[in-house]
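Annotators were shown the component list below and the corresponding predicted structure, then asked to write short factual statements about the assembly.
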Amino acid sequence: MMPRCAVLFSALAILLPLSLHASELRPADQPIEQVIDHYVDALTKADEVPAASQTGDATLLRRLTLDLAGRIPTAREARAYTESTSASKRVELVDRLLASPDFAFHHRNELEEILLPNRRNDGEFRKYLLWAAEQNRRWDDMFRDMLTGNEDDEYQKAALQFVRTRIRDVDDLTNATSVAFFGVNVSCAKCHDHPLVEDWKQDHFYGLQSFLSRTYVTKQNAVLEKPFGEVKYTTREGVEKQAHFMFLTGANVEVASLELSGDEKKKLEEAIRKAEREDNAPIPEPQGDSARGKLVDVALRDGDNHFFAQNIANRIWQRMLGRGLVDPVDQIHSGNPASHPELLEWLARDLVTHGYDLKRLIRGIALSQTYSRSSEWSSASEPPRPEYFALAPARPLTPRQYALSLLVASRNSTHWDQDALQQPDRWRQERESLENSSNGWAGNFEAPTDGFQIAVDEALLFSNNDRIQNDLLRDSGDRLVGQLKAIEDDQEAINTAFLVINSRQPTDEESSAIREYLAARADNRPEALKQAVWALLTGPELRFNH
Amino acid sequence: MTRPGSYFSGSNDHGLSRRGFLGATAAGAATFAADTRLDGFKSEALAAELRKQNKNVILLWLAGGASQFETFDPKPGRPTGGPYRAIPTNATGVHISELLPRIAARMQHTAIIRSLYTKVTDHGGGATLMETGRRPAPGFSYPDIGAVVARELGRIDSQVPDYVSMYTSTEGRRKGTSGFLGARYSPMFLAENMVPENIRRLETISDIDHRDRAALRDVLAKRFNQTHQSSTVASQTTAYHRVRGIMASEKLFDIEQEPEAMRQKYGPLQFGQQCLIARRLIEAGVPFVKVARAWWDSHGQNFETHRELCADLDQAMSALLDDLAERGLLENTLVITLGEFGRTPNINASLGRDHFANAWSCSLSGCGIRGGVAYGRTDEDGHNVADGPVKAGDLFATILSALGIDPESEYYLGSRPLPLADFGSKAVKEVLA
Amino acid sequence: MALSDPTKLKKVRDFGVSGIAFCVARTPASGQLYFGHSDFKLYEVDALAEKPEPKAFTAAGHESYVTGVALSGKQIVSGAYDGRLIWWNAESKEVVRTVEKAHELWIRRFATSPDGALVASVADDMLAKVWDVESGKLVFTLKDHQTLTPNNYPSMLYAVAFSPDGKWLATGDKTGHIAIWEVATGKKVGELEAPVMYTWDPRQRRHSIGGIRSLAFSHDSQLLAAGGIGTIGNIDHLGGPSRVEVFDWQKGERKHEIEDSKLQGLVEQIEFDPSGKWLLAAGGDHGGFVTFYDVATGKMIHQDKAPMHVHQFAINEDHTEIFAVGHGRIAHFDFKSDRPAPPAAPPLPESA
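Structure shown to annotators:
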C-alpha cells in the first residue's frame, strides 16, 4: 500500500477549467516576469512576509548559467558579465544562454529526469529529447510524439521509448504518464481508503489505464495497439467492473473497438502474441482508433487541458525556483492547492495561447525579480517559508549539473577562454564532449529529492577517490591546479581559483585563509594549491545553486 | 568569525603548526550537529531515548531463498520433507532441521516464525517486499528496513556508518535502498571487497594534508553555511565532518584485529567472517548491518546446496549469537535471519525445490525477542499456513516493535502520512519479549 | 542368448511410482526388482507383470531416503541417508540385521562384489566401508576422501564400484577425486582426478554443484569410467553437459572426456558392455537420458530420452535390457540386436 493521498480524487471534479477564471487573471498580454512578480509580491505583502533583496551580479550570472546552461559559468563569462555596464545585460545574458547550444543540452537533461527518471542515459530517448530541445519543439507536440509517435520517423520512434520502456507494467505506464504529463500521482486511486468514493476513484485510475492497456510492443520494438480490449478491475468489495475510457477531468471518450468474431479475434491475438515474441513474425496492420491518440486528444482539448498545461508550468517553475507552485509536483489536486493559484493558472493559460513554448516560459521566469532574489538570510528573524518564494533556496545541483560544473571548474580556465571556442558550432562540439565526460561522474552522485540529504559516500568519494586526486586535481598544464602552479603571486592564484570555481572574487578573509594555508605549506606549494582547489571544489558554493 | 590567521603559527613544523586549525574544525562539527535536526519523527524525545539505548540490528539475508524444510520447518517423513531429519532444540518442543545443530543448541535466544505468507515469488519482487515490508507502488520509493533503522536508531553526526550492507556474491545482488528517506540513509555498500570504497586515504596525500584541507574547506564554507540555513546544506557539512570518523572505522572491517580463537569460532568462510565484521560494527555503534549470503536458489540439488549453505549459516549464526551474548550485546541487538521467500514443498526431478512464498520461515534472535518460541504453523506437508499467517508488513512491525520503535509512528511525505509499517500490519506479540 | 545393438534402443514400457526411486537390484533372469524410495521404504515390484504393483516392505526400517540396495542370494541389504544398513530376508521381507550408524552421514550408494559376498557402501562421512554380506561384519574401512572441499564446505562421497574380476574397488567424491583400492587388503592402489566434475562458483552464487556420481570398470578391469556433470554456468540448475571420463587407471591415463550438451544432467550410472565395445550412461536433470558411447573412440553411438531422471538401473545378464528407476517412474529399455546370436558365444558373467 502507499501513503494515504488525502482526498486526491474527490477534488478533481471541482477543479475548475482555466476559462472560468480568465477574467479575474492579470491581462494576457502582460510580460510573464511582471505577472510573476505581481502575484508573488501580492502574497508576501498580504501576509507581511519579509523578502530577501535582489542578489548581486556574480550570483545571478551563476544561477542563470546553471539554470539555462546546466553548468557554472566560465571565467570568461564571469568577467564579461561583471564588467559589463550595459543596462540590459541581464536580458542579453538570458537571451544569449537560451540561444546557446548549452540550453538544449541542459533542457534535454532536465526533461529526461521528468520523463525517464529511472532509466537515465537511454541513448535513443536522449537523442530525441536533444533534437526536440534544439528546435524548441512545442510541449504538446512532444507529448504526442512520446505517446503516439510515428514508427517510421527516426525521432518520433525514439520518443516512443517513453512507452516502450514501461510496456511490461501497465500500472507503471499509467502512473508514469499521469505523473509526467498531468502532475497527478494516480497510483493512490488503486487503493484509496475512503469507502464512499473509492469506486469513483478507481474509475479514474482504470479509466486512464484503459487508454494505455491496448498497447503492445513487438519483438522488433514497434509500439502498436490492439484494436480492442477493455480494462476490468475488482473493487474492494469484490465487485468486478469494466472501466470506461475516462480522462482525469471526468471526461468520457469514445474509443471504438473492432468488431470481430470469436475466431477472428483469436487469430489476431495469436498474431499479436507472435509479433511480440518473434523477430520475423508479420506485424498485424493497425486498424481503427488509437486509444493512446484519443488520450492525447482529450488531454489537450480546451476545457480538459488544465492538467497538462498546469503540470508543465509547475514543473518548469520548480526547475527554476526549487519548488513547485503546487508542491509536490505530482500532487495537483484541490486538497493541495497552489501557493499562488492565479499565477499558476495565468502561466498555464499563457503556455496554451503561446503554443506550449517552454523557452518563452523559462525566459519569463528568468527575468522576474522573484527569480533573482538573494539566497542569503542573515537576519535574526525566521526566514520566510519556501512557498512565498521570497528567499531564493540553495538548490543542490543535479548529478549532471554537478559533474559538468566540476569538469568546467577543474580545467585550466584559459581553455574555455579561447576565442575560437566561442563560435556556436565549435562550442556545441565542446559541450557534447563535456556531456560525454560527465556521464561517469554524474553516476557518482544522487539525484536530489524532497528533503535531500547529501550522503557521506559523496564526501568519502571526494576525500579518498583516486579519480578526484588524479583527474580533477591533476597538476598538469591542462588543469586548474597546473594553471595556478604557474602563477607566481599567491593572491593572483587565489583570485583565479575563486573566479573559476565560484565565479567571484574572494573576500579578504577567504584570501588570507588560503594565503596562510599556502604559507604554512611553502615547502610544497603545488600540493598546497591542490588542497586549496580541493577545498573550493568540495565547498557548498559549488554544490548548490544559490 | 575568528581570523583564519590565528589558526596558523607560521612554523614549518606541520604537526605543530596546524593543530589549532584542526581544533577549529572540531568545534565546527559540534555546531553543525546541533543545528541539524531532521523533520518528520513524531516524537524526537522518543527517538533520542532509543538512540541512547544503542540498539542494533544484524540482518542475515539468505538471498535466493532458503528452504524452510531444510532450516526452520522440517517435515521429516512427509513426501515433501526431503531426506533430512528434524532434531530437538534446547527449547522444549521446538525441532529444526538436522542441518542446523549449533543453532538448535542456542534456541533460547531465537524465535522462529513458520507462517510467513507473502505470495510474491520472483526474486526482485520478493526481496523488495521483505526489505521494505510493503508492496511497491508506482511513484513511491520506500526505504528498506536498514534505512528505517538507521534513521530511527542512528545519530545524524555519527562517526561510524549507520547502515552497512555486504553482498559479495554477484547473483541477485542488491545494495538496499533508503527510498524517500534520502541518500543520508543509503547503505555503505560492500560488494567486491571486504572493506568499503573510498574509506582509505590515498598514499599520494599525507594524513596531515588530508586533515588540513578539510579544515580549510570548513573555513571557506563557513560563511555560506551561516547564511544558507537548510537541512540539505547542513547535510553536506555533516557528510564531510563524518569522513574522518568513517575512515577511522576502516579497522572495524579488519578481522585480523580479532584474536585467532575468535576468528576460528566464526569459521574460515566468508559469510562467517562478514558476521564477525558485523559484530565489530555494531559494537562500535553501527545500528544496522546486513550480511547477505547468496545464493540459495536451489532449483536443482536442493539437498546438496543446503548441506553446504546450512553448514555455513549454522556456524556463522551460532558464533554470532554466542559472541553477542558473551559481550552483553545480544539484549540490544536483534539478529534477523530472512530471505525473499522459501521453497516449494514439491521436490522436482533435479532434486530441487522452486520458489515458494505461501508458507515459509524466518527467525528473530536477541533484542526484544522471546526466545525458544516457534510461532505459526504450516500444514502437514507445508503447502499452506495452518495457523497464524504473517505478512511482510507484520514481520516489519514485529521487527520495529522488538526494537522499541512504534510501527504506527509516521513519516510525512510532504503532507502525506505514512506509517513505518504498512497500513493494517500487526506485530506478532507472541515472539516479543 | 541375445546380442546387443545400442542403435536398437527403445523403451519397452514405463510406469509411475509416486515419489522418487533412488536405487535398484534385480533378481537374476527376471523382472523382479527391489528399489529404494524417497518415502524411506524398500519396494518389490515385477516390472514384467501385466500390471506392475510395487509392494512396500512393511517392517520398520529406514528413516530417510533409501539409496542403496544389494541382492545376494536370499539376502537383501539396504542403505539409506539415515546412515543405517539393514539386512532383509528377501522372501519374508523381515529385518534380519540392522547396523545402526554404519555411517555417520548419508549413505549414497552401494556396490556388490561380483561373487555377491561383499557389499561396499560410501557415505558423506567420506568413508567407504566393505561389509561381509553373510555375517554382516565390517571388513574394511577405507579412508582417503577429504571431509571438506577445497572451499571449506562439507564434501560428499557419491560413487563406488567393484571391478568385474572382484580385485578392485573404486570410490569417487564430490570434488572429482577417485581412489582405487585392492579388495583383498583394503590398501589404496591408485588415485585419479576428474576435477571438471566439480563446479565451484566463487563469484556469482558462492557454493558448489556436481561431483562424481557413478563409476564402472570395464570387463577386463583395465578401464575405469567416471560419470557426473561438466562445468555448469548457473549452478541453480543441473544445466551442464552430462559427462563421462574414461581412464586406463593403472597407467593413470585419461583416455576420453565425453560431454553431451543435448541431454544434460548428471550421469548417475555407467555400465560397460562385456565385449568392451560400448558403455552405457544414464541419468538426467529435469528429464532423463540413456546414452551409449563407443569405448574405443569415446563417440556417441546412440541415445534416447528417458521418461524421467534416472537414478539407477539394473542390467540383464545378456546386457541387452535395463530396468531403470528414477524420479516418479520405472522404465524398461531394450537394445537387442536383430541378428541371431552366434552359436559359439561364450557364456557371459552374470550381472549383480
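Statements collected:
1. Chain A touches chain B through 77 residues (CB under 8 Å).
2. Chain A is about 55% helix and 5% strand.
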